[in-house]
Amino acid sequence: MNIGDPFVEALGEGCTVSESFGETTVDVPPDRWVAAVSAARDRLGCRFFDWLTAVDEGSEGYAVVCHLWSVEYRYGLLLRTLVPLDDPHLATVTEVFAGAGWHERETYEMFGIAFDGHPHLVPLLLPDGFEGHPLRKEFVLASRVAKEWPGAREPGESSAGGPARRRMRPPGVPDPADWGPNAVAKPPEEPPAPLTTDQDPGPVGTAGAIPTGPGSPEVAPEDLP
C-alpha cells in the first residue's frame, strides 16, 4: 500500500512523504498537524499512539515528531512538523489521542513548545521553580553552577540522612571554583627562572654529562660509561 497517496489527497501539496530505514516519515505544515494525525488514525489504520517529542533543529526551529503504529497492517509512521524558534506553539492532538497528553506536557517543559488547547499543560517531570528548558541546545549545564540545583539532593548526597559519600559533579558541569560567580581568582603563572652558571646541566643530549653546582653528586672519572 502506498501510504503517501492518502496524505497527499487529504492534506494537499503541503505534505512531503519520505522513506528512511524502512519507515515512512510525513512532513506536514503546522496548521495541518491535527488533520495529519487524524488522517493517520482514520485512513491509514494507525490507531496506536506510541510517542511524541521534539528535536531542536537549531536556527530552523523545533521539529515536533509523533510516532504511530498500525496493529492491523504492522507498520509504523512518523509524523513531523516544524515550529519556529521565536514562537514555538502547536495545536494539541489530545482530542485525537488522549495518550498524547503526558507527551505534550513533557515536550512543553523540556523544549518550551506550547500545545494550544491542551487541557492541562503544566510541568510533568522537573521540580517546582525550575527555570529554562533542558533539551534546548541553548540550555547550558553550567547554569547548575550559576544557580543552585532546586532538587532535594545532588549526586553523592545520602538519601538515608547518614554520612554522605564524596560529592560528585554531574557530567558537563564545571567546578564552581573555576567557573561562575564563586570562582577563585588564580595568580598568573610566573615563567621559570633562567639557569645560572652554577646550575648548567652541561651539553644537552651528551651522554655522561657531569652535573655541576651546589648539591650535585661527586662523580669519579672511572665511574663514567
Report on this structure:
It is a single chain. The chain has helices at 4-11, 33-42, 100-111, 143-146; strands at residues 16-20, 23-27, 48-56, 62-70, 75-83, 89-91, 114-116. The chain has 225 residues and is of the alpha/beta class. The strands form two sheets. It has a five-stranded mixed beta sheet with strand order 1-2-5-4-3. The protein has a two-stranded parallel sheet with strand order 6-7. Residues 205-209 have low confidence and may be disordered.
Shape: elongated
The portion of residues assigned to helices is 10-25%
Q: Percent of residues in beta strands?
A: 15-25%
CATH architecture of one domain: 2-Layer Sandwich
**N to C succession of SSEs:** HEEHEEEEHEH
Strand order of the largest sheet: 1-2-5-4-3
Average predicted confidence as pLDDT? 79
Secondary structure tally, helices = 4
Structural class: alpha/beta
Q: Which regions are unreliable across 5 or more consecutive residues at pLDDT < 50?
A: 205-209
The biggest sheet amounts to: 5 strands, mixed
CATH class of one domain: Alpha Beta
Radius of gyration: 31 Å
Number of strands: 7
Terminal CA distance reads 86 Å
CATH topology (fold) name of one domain: Beta Polymerase, domain 2
Any idea what the CATH superfamily of one domain is called? Answer: NADH:ubiquinone oxidoreductase Nqo5 subunit
Keywords:
single chain; 5-stranded mixed sheet; two-stranded parallel ribbon; alpha/beta; 19% strand; 225 residues; Beta Polymerase, domain 2
